[in-house]
Write a structure and sequence with these properties.
This protein has helices spanning 4-7, 50-55, 59-69, 87-91, 98-116, 133-144, 161-169, 198-211, 227-241; strands spanning 10-17, 25-32, 44-47, 76-80, 126-131, 151-155, 177-183, 189-191, 194-196, 215-221. The chain is built from nine helices and ten strands. It is globular and about 45 Å long. The strands form two sheets. The chain has an eight-stranded mixed beta sheet with strand order 1-2-4-3-5-6-7-10, with helices on both faces. A two-stranded antiparallel ribbon has the order 8-9.
């Protein structure tokens, strides 16, 4: 049974305006940690698929537990919602909306969060997190804006050939740290662009990133391409960076 203290979460709905996105705004959900105080400053976790991370990943409840019971430093979570019909177009590097979304994230969303919440403004205190294509777009945001982002949580990242080619063409990544997991039952996962072996994709991307000098905490586990698997590993992912 879940401790009721973990369920007493402060989650604020917010909206970031945009001149870049076609819809001109993006819905956000913001987790403010226990003991939140505006005169302090906090590390920040940015989650792609924000609604799913909060509802299925239970990231706010897990954060509460780690902060209250395990002494983890309090941090803010920014969940960035996505229209599932546009998700592949925004998150995949060859999607027609990808460049706009990446630019929005770094040049509009980040300044908005920094203007509204007491988050630390050093890339060492920012973490990007995503599942599947959310892990992919997190990597590409960090590759495009290395001076802003260098820590990534990738849960079964959808590192298709286009992503691998971009990473292989990139320069040194010795500033970058990644937490990567993949499920051993993800060897024939059907996506809207074909059937892929996610274990092979993640092994290949790990090797590319390793050769570029990135620090990687990589592991494979029994599991499928579902939130039930990813949720189990969110505590370890948070402990890796906070």
């Amino acid at each position: 049974m879940t401790d009721q203290r973990y369920l007493k979460r402060t989650i604020v709905k917010d909206t970031a305006a945009s001149r870049i996105l076609p819809e001109q705004e993006r819905e956000l959900r913001i987790f403010l940690p226990p003991g939140y105080n505006e005169v302090l400053s906090y590390p920040v976790l940015f989650c792609q698929d924000g609604e799913d991370f909060f509802n299925f990943g239970r990231v706010a409840t897990i954060a509460n537990q780690l902060i209250l019971d395990e002494g983890m430093e309090p941090f803010i979570i920014v969940g960035v919602d996505v229209d599932k019909k546009k998700r592949t177009s925004e998150y995949a590097p060859d999607g027609e909306l990808h460049d706009g979304y990446v630019t929005f994230f770094a040049e509009e969303l980040l300044p908005y969060i920094e203007s509204r919440y007491p988050v630390r403004r050093d890339p060492q205190h920012r973490v990007l997190a995503g599942d599947s294509l959310g892990g992919t777009v997190s990597l590409h945001i960090a590759l495009r804006y290395p001076h802003l982002f260098n820590k990534i949580i990738s849960l079964s990242g959808a590192f298709y050939p286009a992503s691998q080619e971009i990473a292989a063409r990139s320069g040194l990544m010795d500033h970058m740290s990644l937490f990567m997991i993949v499920g051993l039952q993800e060897t024939a996962f059907e996506t809207d662009s074909g059937t892929y072996d996610f274990v092979a994709l993640n092994r290949a991307m790990k090797q590319i990133l390793k050769e570029k000098g990135a620090a990687i905490l990589y592991s494979e586990h029994e599991g499928k391409h579902v939130w039930g698997f990813w949720q189990k590993h969110i505590p370890s992912a948070l402990k890796a960076f906070f």
